[in-house]
Amino acid sequence: MRILVVDDDRRLCAVIKRGLLEEAYAVDLAYEGEEGEYLAEVNPYDLIILDIMMPVKDGIEVCQELRAKKVNTPILMLTAKDTVEDRVRGLDTGADDYLVKPFAFSELLARVRALLRREGISKSPELRIGDLTLNTLTRQVWRGHKPMELTSKEYVILEYFMRHPNVVVTRTIIEEHAWDYDFDSLSNLVDVYIRRLRRKIDIDGEDSLIQTVRGAGYRLKAP
């Protein structure tokens, strides 16, 4: 999952990014509203964490303009203001949730997970395709009763496949959701990780769960 953090507090951005990277999210940063709005328009983010109090263009304006441009990415508003009127204003502009500073990072993570579940096909923290199970809270993966040890990037790619079963997923889509803005799109890392995933989740003698679709990309086959 790929997240955009927009906040003029560079220290807070660094803390949020470090914590999200540890949870296997890909993260881009923007330090002012116009830059954040541009990145949100041109990249397919799974979630935007947006501060309200920013110079030049604040989070309310950014949220309003993104919604007017039909950018429907979930938005989690951050603000130091804690009045009912401020919360209502933020939500009425199109934000999906609201978190008051200072906050515990564990609460931020919980809200991030909740918003991502809201957008997915399943509201449960467990995703299941056949006998393949992935828990988005513990980041554990099983095939039947056998636990799988995945790297952070393998986990991110598999989670995306399991949220989009039987859908052809191009290499570009995988890159956009699993890596940040600095990823080298000319590399063959996507294919490398797909091979690694197949070795870990497939059962000898059976067809691979992740199928290659010639000229298009890959598809996770659901029963």
Provide tags for this entry.
40% helix; 223 residues; alpha/beta; Arc Repressor Mutant, subunit A; 4-stranded antiparallel sheet; elongated
Commentary on this structure:
- The protein is of the alpha/beta class.
- The chain folds into 2 domains: 118 residues, 3-Layer(aba) Sandwich (Rossmann fold), CATH 3.40.50; 95 residues, Winged helix-like DNA-binding domain superfamily/Winged helix DNA-binding domain (Arc Repressor Mutant, subunit A, Orthogonal Bundle).
- The mean pLDDT is 88.
- The chain is elongated and about 60 Å long.
- It contains 8 helices and 11 strands.
- The strands form 3 sheets. Strands 2-1-3-4-5 form a 5-stranded parallel β-sheet, sandwiched between helices. A 4-stranded antiparallel β-sheet has the order 6-7-8-9, covered by helices on one side. The chain has a two-stranded antiparallel ribbon with strand order 10-11.
